[in-house]
Design a protein that fits this description.
- The protein is α/β, with parallel strands linked by helices and 393 residues long.
- It has two domains: 240 residues, 3-Layer(aba) Sandwich (Aspartate Aminotransferase, domain 2); 148 residues, Aspartate Aminotransferase, domain 1 (Alpha-Beta Complex).
- Bound molecules: pyridoxal-5'-phosphate (PLP).
- The site of pyridoxal-5'-phosphate has 15 residues, from helix 3 and helix 4.
- It is an enzyme of class 4 (lyase).
């Protein structure tokens, strides 16, 4: 069965106890034990809950993993995975990294004796050079945020295999609809399901799928021991969102491709970052390891002043942190995701004061582009007909 079908028919969509067509909210913290010597599958909800379990099996199925786990947030998922490591262990990590992951790796884990080297994982030579005797894993985000640099997952996996390292991939930007890291050699795949998987800006949630039984057992112990589980309501919302993943990814990606191309032609736009654009250095690699380019693009307006002007004039996208929702979201990395990074380091990575990131939602692509065009000032709202003005108020 193809992916679009498996989103809806993966064996976890019908409640096994009642036949309900939507997995019910098993809003219970504990379970009656008929026989204390032979407890059932569920004894206490931190250890297991049927609603959460259905979501966990679904993500395992969709990422083609052995077992799945649901956590209270993407960061809870990532932090719990980091607890697989011990004092003295070292990780090699993509330097273009989600800010929250960077914070855990730089401010929290060193206190526990776990250290990380941040390297440009798009260059396998740098990955190889950063490996030490105490290295245990390589952690990758591809495409990276917000400049969308592409790492060769199969290539880095070969390096990991030669050195006996785990490969961990944050697949938030592409989702299993476009990219399946476990197929390409990864051992653990992580999602902030707050983004495309949930898809509606109404839930904070994290998911993990793992390839092997041994890592799955260690992670199951950690999830229960640390208690970083996803709540029942949020598990339900995540499953509800996931059912429409294909439709949302297809529509948003088609719009993102169109908007990226047209933004390139606007005089006020200095540079557009999107892996689907001809000339993007990672385009061919992206097409060899993923089946689409996703719904996130970034563009540089040249200055912070211009960014402020555009953010105050834009009408359709919400101006916010986050991505991956039904509504388009415009983020300002210099003040949001990358605010904590030293200015020089930030600019070296292309995250300039003029850079905006757009997560394209389900609005009509032409409406979105026209709105950006008027906000960037290439076209004044005054020159737009009443019909357009009425349609965006
Ligand atoms: C948002 C995000 C996270 C963190 O997820 P939360 O659900 O906010 O905790 C991790 N990685 C990436 C790529 C993200 O975009």
């Amino acid at each position: 069965m193809n992916f679009g079908t498996r989103l809806l028919h993966n064996g976890n969509e019908i409640d096994p106890f009642t036949g309900a067509a939507s997995i019910p909210l098993y809003q219970a913290s504990t379970y009656h034990q008929e026989d204390v010597d032979a407890p059932g599958d569920y004894d206490y909800a931190r250890s297991g809950n049927p609603t959460r379990h259905a979501l966990e099996q679904t993500i395992a199925e969709l990422e083609e993993g052995y077992r799945g786990f649901a956590f209270a947030s993407g960061m809870a998922a990532i932090s719990t995975v980091f607890f697989l490591f011990s004092s003295g262990d070292h990780l090699v990590v993509s330097e273009d990294l989600y800010g929250g992951t960077y914070r855990v790796l730089s401010d929290v884990l060193p206190r526990l004796g776990i250290r990380a080297s941040f390297v440009d994982t798009t260059d396998p030579g740098q990955v190889e050079k950063a490996i030490r005797p105490e290295t245990r894993a390589i952690y990758i985000e591809t495409p990276s945020n917000p400049t969308l640099k592409v790492t060769d997952l199969a290539g880095v996996s070969r390096i990991a295999e030669r050195n006996g390292l785990l490969i961990i991939v944050d697949n938030t930007f592409l989702t299993p609809y476009f990219q399946k890291p476990l197929r390409l050699g990864a051992d653990i795949v992580i999602h902030s399901a707050t983004k495309f998987i949930g898809g509606h800006s109404d839930v904070v949630s994290g998911l993990v799928a793992v390839k092997g039984e041994e890592v799955a057992e260690r992670l199951a112990l950690l999830q229960n021991a640390l208690g970083s589980i996803l709540g029942v309501q949020d598990a339900w919302l995540t499953m509800r969102g996931l059912k429409t993943l294909k439709a949302r990814m297809e529509t948003s990606t088609a719009s993102a491709e169109k908007i990226a191309r047209r933004l390139q032609e606007l005089p006020g736009v200095k540079k557009v970052y999107y892996t689907g654009l001809p000339g993007h250095p990672g385009k061919d690699l992206q097409e060899s390891q993923a089946s689409g380019h996703g719904a996130v693009l970034s563009f540089d307006l040249g200055s912070g002043a211009k960014v402020r002007e555009v953010l105050s004039r834009v009408r359709l996208p919400i101006v916010a942190v986050s991505l991956g929702s039904v509504e388009s979201i415009l983020s300002y990395p210099a003040k949001m995701s990358h605010a904590a990074m030293p200015t020089e380091e930030r600019q070296r990575r292309g995250v300039t004061d003029g850079l905006l990131r757009l997560s394209v939602g389900l609005e009509d692509a032409d409406d979105l582009f026209r709105d950006l065009e008027q906000a960037i000032g290439s076209r004044r709202l005054i020159s737009v007909g009443p019909e357009w003005r009425a349609s965006i108020v």
